[in-house]
Input
Amino acid sequence: MRFFVETFGCQMNVADSLEMGRRLRARGFRTTKQLDRADVVLVNSCTVRDHAEHKALSFLGRLADWKSAAPGRLLIFAGCAAERLKDRLGRRFPQVDLVAGAKSIGDFDRLLAERFPALPFDGQQEWVDAWGWAPGLGETGLPGEGVTAFVTIMRGCNYACTYCVVPSVRGRELYRPAASIFSEVKERAAQGQREILLLGQTVNSYRPQGPNPGPEGREISDFSDLLQMVDAVPGVARIRFMSPHPHYVDERLAQAIHRSARVAPHIHLPVQSGSDAVLARMRRNYTREEFCRKVDVLRHHIPGLAVTTDFIVGFPGETEEDFLATLRLGREADLDGAYTFKYSPRPGTVSAQGADDVPDSVKEERLARLMEETDSRSRTKLAQLVGKTQEVLVEKGASEGSGFVWEGRTAHCRKIYVTSAKTHTTGDLLSVRVERADGKTLYGRVDA
Output
């Protein structure tokens, strides 16, 4: 029997899909990339933005024909949109057999057993903790996996940003025990996954209450301790984390990154706006000055640090002056790049209760200006790398021609295609001389 996974949304959703996929494999299912060969389809959804939710629901609707084409097929709808809509899904999508909302990912085994008691299950592979990790369950090869291991360290969010639906669909913060994280990272590295991506809604808020021993009984009290614990695992070549909150960026974190040999010199630090007035209405709990000061602290301790961010344009009440402050922030903080989005009201959030008073045409115009500004900065940063040597982690082979061409990422998370006269394998670290930059992509050659 085979299962097919379709994931919408962020890296946390990818990690959740991988976790649920492992549970299906524990029941004897094999993965398939061909929908028509699947006996089970798992759709993991996003609801952070209206467009993302619609994409997931549209795909779910199209699966009605797949479900009716063969008896016994099972359809599972999971994730954030599933959590938000679970009480209404049955009427609109009767083809769905099981709803596993984002708050129930950790109970996926139990949900499967209760809903489908006839499914095979090897009782020797029960979960050993609430995070779904047991030795031997970490086989690579699931859709979405490669050289990077997605390791969830926490779930939920204790913040109340007025535009964000995540706290209502993911719940409050829950922190994974350090011993469990260590076991997973160690196994992942032993299997050849050379990059560890630590994940959480506000990943650097990791602060378990009570005893939280790591290896050799060392107490892991916060995210800085956790980074150094992971940094010591043999076989790990690179460590990244997503997505930190500016509130928890301080000297201690900057020093921990500096002391860690494998933590990448790149941080994606969402700011959302450069206007203090807008930040206050968003309830982001910092000002633009505080954000810039935190970036300065990081750069002081981490030479060559690349900083990227998220921006939302058109938040209710945003004036042209507010928007211009956002444009200026990119320059003042010397940002390396940004993901930019138009504001869209999400049901159940505070901001959705008021007027969405910035016309869509204005949002579009501001988004275009912001993208032009951020893309221009990114291109300038990449052009400055031409002629320089970068450490590149090989992610996959791209093609063969005049030498072998490999696809990878620099330590600053920049995509690069690498030409080499030698053969390499995924997970190799290469010393690459950058020859040119084209758009947001680098091209280089392995140093002789």
Observations:
- The two ends are 48 Å apart (CA to CA).
- The domain at 2-125 is CATH 3.40.50.12160 (Rossmann fold).
- The longest strand covers residues 389-401.
- The chain is about 35% helix and 25% strand.
